[in-house]
């Protein structure tokens, strides 16, 4: 089957070549290798899908209670009713009285006896042979039938070009040394098996994707990804970046910043700064991920990196995903750097046209040495005079395309700026090994002295009044608190307590205290005014949506109530909880939930009550949501692994890494063929 012959609908799914169809592997299978009498089906079908056949003795369209097609079939043992709520005239014709049909589905008790609803139907002769292999069920888009995909795949598997596309070119010796002792088939055999498994195949292993045929495909896919990432790593080392060595002791902005800071660096911060300092002194671009739990002090490390770059006459930029977080960085950096004579610029989408233009001018002229803002910093009309460092906070919030390296031309010289990515959402080890192989990772694994552990309590929403009474005695001690809600306005679908409603209720219940409200729909200046008042203790209780998830630092706020906690994810609650525990008072986070709770929500709240270890939480989050959302790569949709589950298949990653290293050193020709087979044009995304 050639590209030109592929139906338009298949092309839309990217199934435009024999190779693409061969790699469009089944998501599950149906067993059509056995046939029961109708009587046997009535027994078996109540416990799962069953296949039977018979002659049509009745075919009628009813219009009450809704339009539906009812067909009755019989054999020598019994009769069975088939019910279709959505049907076409062609189906009605296919099951005309007297026709012989083979049907597959679950049997249930209907109003008029046993029935199958929307079974799979085939017109057959009474003695038509059964299939000898399991029937694949493929991922499909709307409007594309399984029959169309099955026919296209079967045709592709017979295409002579596929033999070359799936040729075995990985060195036999390498495979023998690296792969497990049990027999993995070659790639062509594995793919043919997965499309056409025999009747006696281990269906469980196929469905769980642990069958040797699946393992071979998964290994090959991981190998392509690891080769691509390792090559990106090597390519980066060949690029040119300005080298920023440490200035003479006691001079410059770096030394000045360390003097004005009101605290000493922790040993973890000092170790991480040493790693970054070493990267900045190299003549190829740094590509480092700085991980650290909420409140561990990542910002000061980023500030030291910015100071080093500015000491050499270059600009530094700090980019954050939300205005509130970017603004926190701006205020903090301004406080540290302006006394040292540094001009700090602010750029965000909400600035007025005149202010934006002025900011762009001082950035382009080089007058602004440190630039802080949202993704407005990477828009086309922003031009840096001499950018040496880009710091990207909460990097998983940006799409893959937005993280691609920033390159610049200064005079005749092309150079890449150093990049420091920061995240308070720890990247699980399996994710780091597969998607961040091109990144060097630093971890701040201790909190600054004085940070106390946060006690987490899980409370039913029916005890809301008790929580409000406790809040009153808390505020009476002179401490402040957050009350977080998931929605701004009432949603009939979710029936959740809203921020506005909670604000009104808490204002009435606590008349002696000032209650503030902040949410995403407030204008930037209104939001800033409320936050400033909260920070100054003019507001004692802040009712908020998740806009306070990151970047808010109020040491006197030591209580956090999260309403409808069952609707928040692991990472969100972990981030929110990190807003308290920043002062000397004992801190508490109350997770208030509405019943009934799903099993997943119950497990999530239990985990959050038991641990505050960001890495444990991140691993649980990965198993729940998959890598797409944690990476931010969902926005590209291209860099995700199709056949590998990072939790289940983690042991394969190390095998693929070892194989990738050896192929890159000894088999450059094989590397090219392997990347082309698995990634084609998608390899670019893996370099982001």
From TrEMBL:
EC number: 5.6.2.4
Helicase ATP-binding domain sequence ranges: 279-444
Biological process according to GO: DNA recombination; DNA repair
PROSITE patterns (UniProt xref): HELICASE_ATP_BIND_1 (PS51192), HELICASE_CTER (PS51194)
Reaction(s) the record says it catalyses: ATP + H2O = ADP + phosphate + H(+); Couples ATP hydrolysis with the unwinding of duplex DNA by translocating in the 3'-5' direction
Record SMART domains: DEXDc (SM00487), HELICc (SM00490)
Domain spans labelled Helicase C-terminal: 477-623
GO molecular function ontology, one term from the record: ATP hydrolysis activity
One Pfam family of this chain: RecG_dom3_C
InterPro entries noted in UniProt: ATP-dep_DNA_helicase_RecG (IPR004609), DEAD/DEAH_box_helicase_dom (IPR011545), Helicase_ATP-bd (IPR014001), Helicase_C-like (IPR001650), NA-bd_OB-fold (IPR012340), P-loop_NTPase (IPR027417), RecG/Mfd (IPR047112), RecG_dom3_C (IPR045562)
Keywords (A to Z) from UniProt: ATP-binding, DNA damage, DNA recombination, DNA repair, DNA-binding, Helicase, Hydrolase, Isomerase, Nucleotide-binding
Role this protein plays: Plays a critical role in recombination and DNA repair. Helps process Holliday junction intermediates to mature products by catalyzing branch migration. Has replication fork regression activity, unwinds stalled or blocked replication forks to make a HJ that can be resolved. Has a DNA unwinding activity characteristic of a DNA helicase with 3'-5' polarity.
Family: Belongs to the helicase family. RecG subfamily.
Matching NCBIfam families: PRK10917.1-1, PRK10917.1-4, PRK10917.2-2, recG
Name used for this protein in its record: ATP-dependent DNA helicase RecG
Species this protein is from: Polynucleobacter wuianus
């Amino acid at each position: 089957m050639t590209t030109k012959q592929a139906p338009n609908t298949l092309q839309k799914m990217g199934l435009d070549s024999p190779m693409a169809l061969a790699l469009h592997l089944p998501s599950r299978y149906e067993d059509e290798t056995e046939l029961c009498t109708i009587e046997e089906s009535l027994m078996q079908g109540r416990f799962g899908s069953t296949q039977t056949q018979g002659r049509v003795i009745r075919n009628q369209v009813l219009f009450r209670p809704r339009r539906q097609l009812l067909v009755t079939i019989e054999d020598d043992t019994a009769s069975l009713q088939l019910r279709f709520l959505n049907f076409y005239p062609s189906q009605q014709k296919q099951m005309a009285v007297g026709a012989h049909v083979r049907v597959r589905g679950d049997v249930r008790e209907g109003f008029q006896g046993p029935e199958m609803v929307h079974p799979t139907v085939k017109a057959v002769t009474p003695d038509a042979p059964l299939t000898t292999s399991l029937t694949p069920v493929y991922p499909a888009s709307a409007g594309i039938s399984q029959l169309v995909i099955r026919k296209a795949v079967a045709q592709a598997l017979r295409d002579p070009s596929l033999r070359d596309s799936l040729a075995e070119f990985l060195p036999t010796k390498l495979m023998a040394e690296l792969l497990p002792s049990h027999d993995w088939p070659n790639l062509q055999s594995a793919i043919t098996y997965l499309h056409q498994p025999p009747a006696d195949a281990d269906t469980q292993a196929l469905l769980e994707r642990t069958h040797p045929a699946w393992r071979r495909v998964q290994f090959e896919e991981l190998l392509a990804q690891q080769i691509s990432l390792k090559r990106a790593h090597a390519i980066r080392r060949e690029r040119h970046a300005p080298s920023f060595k440490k200035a003479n002791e006691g001079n410059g902005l770096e030394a000045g910043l360390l003097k004005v800071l009101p605290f000493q660096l922790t040993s973890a911060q000092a170790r991480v700064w040493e790693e970054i300092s070493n990267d900045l002194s190299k003549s190829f671009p740094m590509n480092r991920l700085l991980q650290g739990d909420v409140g561990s002090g990542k910002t000061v490390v980023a500030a030291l990196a910015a100071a080093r770059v500015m000491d050499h006459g270059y600009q530094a930029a700090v980019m954050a995903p939300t205005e509130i977080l970017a603004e926190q960085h701006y205020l903090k950096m301004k406080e540290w750097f302006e006394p040292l004579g540094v001009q700090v610029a602010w750029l965000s989408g909400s600035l007025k046209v005149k202010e934006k233009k002025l900011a762009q001018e001082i950035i382009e002229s080089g007058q602004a040495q440190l630039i802080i803002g949202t993704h407005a910093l990477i828009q086309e009309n922003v031009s840096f005079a001499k950018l040496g460092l880009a710091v990207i906070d909460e990097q998983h919030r940006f799409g893959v395309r937005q993280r691609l390296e920033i390159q610049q031309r200064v005079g005749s010289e092309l150079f890449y700026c150093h990049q420091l990515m920061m995240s308070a959402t720890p990247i699980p080890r399996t994710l780091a090994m597969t998607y961040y192989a091109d990144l060097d990772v630093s971890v701040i694994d201790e909190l600054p002295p004085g940070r106390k552990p946060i006690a987490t309590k899980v409370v039913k929403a029916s005890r809301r009044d008790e929580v409000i009474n406790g809040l009153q005695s808390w505020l009476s001690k002179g401490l402040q608190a957050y009350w977080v809600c998931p929605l701004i306005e009432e949603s009939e679908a979710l029936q959740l307590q809203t921020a506005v409603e909670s604000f009104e209720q808490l204002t009435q219940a606590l008349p002696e205290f000032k209650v503030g409200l902040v949410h995403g729909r407030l204008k930037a200046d209104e939001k800033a005014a409320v936050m400033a008042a909260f920070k100054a203790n003019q507001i004692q209780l802040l009712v908020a949506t998740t806009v306070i998830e990151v970047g808010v630092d109020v040491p006197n706020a030591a209580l956090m109530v999260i309403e409808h906690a069952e609707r928040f994810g692991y990472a969100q609650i972990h981030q929110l909880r990190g807003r308290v525990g920043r002062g000397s008072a004992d801190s508490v986070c109350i997770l208030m939930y509405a019943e009934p709770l799903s099993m997943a929500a119950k497990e999530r709240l239990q985990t959050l009550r038991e641990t505050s270890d960001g890495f444990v939480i991140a691993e649980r989050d990965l198993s729940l949501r998959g890598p797409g959302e944690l990476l931010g790569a969902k926005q590209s949709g291209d860099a995700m692994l199709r056949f590998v589950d990072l939790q289940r298949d983690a042991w394969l990653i190390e095998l693929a890494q070892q194989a990738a290293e050896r192929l890159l050193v000894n088999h450059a020709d094989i590397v090219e063929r392997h990347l082309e087979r698995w990634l084609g044009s998608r390899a670019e995304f893996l370099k982001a």
